[in-house]
Inverse folding.
């Protein structure tokens, strides 16, 4: 059962309070003394409010009362849910202490996720109510949440029922297994694919990513049948599901029938997932470390793959389909010479395509292309590097390039074939739940778009419970996160900062190279929140290099002086210097902040230190729509 108590409303208020408390205590393991006392305080008062509701509302006997409803997969528990008429009321109970924005946003997070991922909530009205003895009387409203004193709860419930007539949701439908299917994080998706080879059916995610999956699967099956070679570029905005598509191609069942027999009699594996994102590889391998060693091959570093096959020119890889994540960040020849140990100085795309040509019969190379994600020196060329690479293969006529319309201009006029496929661009932002304009807002912020338009985007995001907050007090930011996720033991929130800033150390944020290079990214993302190494301790800083391609539930971004507003324009005049020449330093700085601003699935708090050189940045962020957190 997914809740501690479920009954019709009359049964709830007629049952002895001690019986209800005992049932809740048996459901919530290790509840603790404070939680037990809270139930003893709240349950009698709740029962009295339900009695009074029954006296005012003739429909009340048909309502369902659900206490301590646990959202599957993330262990959050809503205090009280009432299925009344056509509305679903989600109630959080707070004690005598005052409540802050974190408590309100915690409640709105429940409502958003139930609406987005619970089948019984589709098309229904969900109403958040926060009942606290610290609330004023009569009831008020803040950020779409009804705030009331516990003694006014029956009046609030009666008013909601009156304006939402209709039959209630069936209790069995609400609590049935499989009714709530949230979008998994990358780490959760990796675990589930490794264990079951399937991801849960999430309608919105399937609608956004399945056309691309089907398209690439068809290309692979056609290549196997015809004995042809293909380069597929799957593009998309940050958080649109490119990584999920790549992981499913390799680790789900899409290509099982394409394994080829080899000389040793054993069938080849159909695909391999490669990434140039070292932290992503480490985090996923850490998450799968208990899987009998399988985590080491679930996702593999591009560097070791290229080095192994480039130094063994007669050996062909067993895989016919290669997925290369973060392919827009592929290293050019100069960077390969610096970091790879190969006999030939080629770019990473050139190396991969030459390796692919050794594969007998057929192969497909899938390059996952993000926008504005180049953060390393040597990554700035982007998609044109792939055009140069495919022209360098022994016979370009044997290859066909498949890409979305906006990338086609990079490949026209070559000796190879080209197919323009609209399904190869993912434009729906999935990472951010119901919020769909995060990428547009961040892009506008960094390109100095009209502030009034940015404020409109910010307001739209805020209405979907995606928060853009700003403060000059680091302790206030930390307190907000701890309050907001106090009932979410699996939530991940952490401190991010740019690697090129020189100011933050003065304000207690150690983003120096010597410190951040020692960060153990696996435990930082995966360890329990109480672990000293966990990101939730808000002590250890992850830079753009440790966070790109990964995600948090909420990000605390310490804004540095390496990208600041000066006379109405972005400037990198105070940034640390680069060891190698850079094509466009300011563009690289903007890419870094584009990455840092898009890590939080539920929002970002920006901490701007009290430093004169950042005063204009502070004003600009507020003008663009970041709401000050007090």
């Amino acid at each position: 059962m997914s809740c501690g108590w479920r009954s019709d409303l009359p049964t709830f208020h007629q049952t002895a309070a001690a019986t209800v408390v005992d049932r809740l205590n048996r459901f919530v393991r290790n509840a603790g003394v404070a939680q037990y006392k809270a139930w003893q305080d709240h349950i009698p008062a709740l029962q009295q409010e339900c009695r009074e509701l029954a006296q005012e509302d003739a429909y009340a006997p048909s309502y369902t009362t659900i206490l301590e409803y646990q959202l599957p997969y993330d262990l959050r528990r809503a205090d009280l849910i009432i299925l009344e008429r056509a509305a679903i009321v989600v109630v959080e109970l707070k004690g005598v202490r005052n409540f802050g924005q974190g408590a309100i946003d915690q409640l709105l997070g429940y409502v958003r996720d139930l609406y987005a991922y619970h089948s019984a909530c589709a098309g229904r009205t969900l109403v958040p109510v926060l009942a606290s003895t610290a609330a004023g009387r009569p009831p008020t409203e803040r950020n779409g949440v009804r705030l009331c004193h516990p003694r006014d709860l029956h009046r609030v419930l009666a008013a909601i029922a009156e304006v939402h007539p209709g039959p209630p949701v069936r209790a069995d439908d609400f609590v049935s297994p499989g009714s709530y299917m949230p979008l998994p994080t990358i780490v959760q998706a990796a675990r589930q694919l490794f264990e079951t080879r399937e991801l849960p059916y999430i309608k919105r995610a399937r609608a956004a990513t399945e056309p691309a999956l089907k398209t690439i699967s068809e290309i692979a099956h056609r290549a196997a049948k015809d004995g042809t070679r293909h380069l597929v570029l799957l593009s998309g905005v940050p958080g649109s599901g490119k990584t999920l598509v790549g992981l499913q191609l390799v680790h789900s069942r899409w290509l099982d029938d394409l394994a080829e027999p080899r000389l040793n009699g054993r069938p080849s594996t159909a695909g391999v997932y490669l990434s140039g994102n070292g932290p992503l590889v480490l985090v996923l391998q850490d998450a799968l470390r208990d899987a009998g060693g399988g985590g080491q091959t679930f996702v593999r570093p591009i560097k070791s793959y290229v080095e192994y096959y480039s130094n063994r020119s007669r050996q062909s890889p067993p895989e016919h389909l290669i997925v290369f994540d973060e392919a827009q960040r592929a290293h050019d020849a100069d960077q390969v010479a610096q970091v790879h140990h190969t006999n030939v100085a080629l770019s990473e795309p050139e190396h991969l395509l030459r390796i692919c040509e050794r594969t007998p019969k057929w192969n497909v190379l899938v390059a996952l292309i993000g926008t504005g994600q180049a953060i390393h020196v040597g990554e700035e060329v982007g998609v044109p590097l792939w055009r140069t690479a495919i022209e360098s293969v022994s016979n370009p006529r044997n290859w066909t390039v498949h890409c979305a319309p906006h990338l086609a201009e990079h490949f026209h006029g070559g000796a190879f074939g080209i197919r323009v496929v609209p399904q190869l661009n993912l434009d729906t932002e999935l990472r951010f739940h119901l919020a769909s304009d995060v990428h547009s807002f961040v892009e506008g912020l960094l390109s100095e778009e009209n502030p009034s338009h940015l404020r409109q985007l910010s307001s739209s995001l805020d209405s979907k419970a995606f928060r853009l907050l700003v403060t000059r007090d680091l302790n206030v930011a930390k307190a907000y996160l701890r309050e907001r996720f106090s009932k979410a033991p699996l939530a991940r929130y952490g401190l991010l900062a740019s690697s090129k800033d020189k100011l933050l150390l003065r304000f207690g944020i150690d983003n120096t190279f010597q410190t951040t290079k020692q960060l153990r990214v696996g435990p930082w993302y995966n360890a329990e929140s109480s672990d000293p190494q966990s990101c939730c301790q808000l002590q250890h800083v992850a830079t753009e290099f440790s966070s790109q391609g990964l995600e948090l539930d909420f990000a605390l971004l310490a804004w540095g002086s390496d990208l600041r507003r000066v006379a109405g324009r972005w400037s990198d005049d105070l940034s640390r210097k680069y060891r190698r020449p850079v094509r466009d330093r300011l563009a690289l700085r903007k890419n870094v902040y584009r990455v840092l601003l898009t890590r939080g699935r539920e929002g970002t708090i920006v901490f701007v230190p009290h430093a004169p050189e950042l005063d204009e940045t502070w004003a600009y962020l507020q003008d663009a729509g970041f709401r000050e957190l007090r």
The chain has three domains: 5-175, 186-426, 438-628. The first strand starts at residue 5 and ends at 8. The two ends are 40 Å apart (CA to CA). The first helix runs from residue 9 to 14.
